[in-house]
Amino acid sequence: MALQFEVDSLDGIDEGQKGLYIEHEGKFRLDVTGIDPADELKTALQKEREERKAEKARADALESKGRQAEEDAAKQRGEYEKLFNTERENNANLKVQFDEYKAEVEQGKVNSSAEKLATKLTRDTARAELLADKIKSFVKVENGLAAFFDAAGVKIEEQAVIDHVSKQYPFLVDANVGTGGGATGSQSSGAAKTVTRTQFDQMSQAQRAKFSTEGGKVVD
Predict the structure, then answer these.
(1) CB–CB of 130/147 below 8 Å?
(2) What is the DSSP string of the chain?
(3) 113 or 198: which leads in pLDDT
(4) Is the pLDDT of residue 128 over 70?
(5) Phi/psi of residue 115, nearest 5 degrees
(6) Is the C-alpha dihedral spanning 63, 66, 70, 71 positive or negative?
(7) Which residues of 42-55 are buried (b: 16+ CB within 10 A; e: fewer)?
(8) pTM (2 decimals)?
């Protein structure tokens, strides 16, 4: 029968074998030399340490992989958001530029239409410029084309604008320009043209002299 390396008590051990044991930490071990009685324990501990180390390495690798995946996802989200914001900003800038360009084009059409009509009413450059400023309020761009509209937004004919400015600003309209019945300076009855006191006061000295010379009358 093989001897046990370590026993709790010497009870039950043959008298001839008790002398082979020595007390160790409250127990009894065989008194031997040349071997480390803790080799198996050390081996078990080493194995456990290696297993724990390997497990930790696997856990660290998984954690690192997960962290990298999160970082990559965050980076992609960030790049997408950056790209989206850039595109949105570019689109907004393009819209502003387009709106500005459209407004410039439409204003150019308004100016051109008003100036064209003003030159029909007077050959005087200075008066034509003043008339054009008055006519502009009647010009709007609709479907890309300039047209005349009244204060209520209703589309009107060119002649209606001519009649209006000829009546409101007769001192800016040439005397020989007709307006289709309500003309200032070309009345079918042959009567002298008339202006209100306010309109007369707005004339320059030269315009007043010309108005008087042509037989114009001031009415209250």
Answers:
(1) no
(2) -PPPSEES-STTS-HHHHTTEEEETTEEEE---SS-TTHHHHHHHHHHHHHHHHHHHHHHHHHHHHHHHHHHHHHHHHHHHHHHHHHHHHHHHHHHHHHHHHHHHHHHHHHHHHHHHHHHH-S-HHHHHHHHHHHGGGEEEETTEEEEE-TTS-EE-HHHHHHHHHHH-GGGS-TT---SSS-SS--TT-PPPEEEHHHHHTS-HHHHHHHHHTT-EEE-
(3) 113
(4) yes
(5) -65, -35
(6) positive
(7) eeeeeeeeeeeeee
(8) 0.44
For residue 116, what pLDDT is reported? Answer: 92
Say which residues have a Cβ less than 8 Å from residue 166's Cβ, sequence separation at least 6. Answer: 121, 173, 177, 179, 182, 183, 184, 185
- Residue 175 makes CB contacts below 8 A (sequence gap 6+) with 185, 186, 193, 214
Centroid of chain to Cα 135: 37
Tokens 């009413």 map to which residue? 121
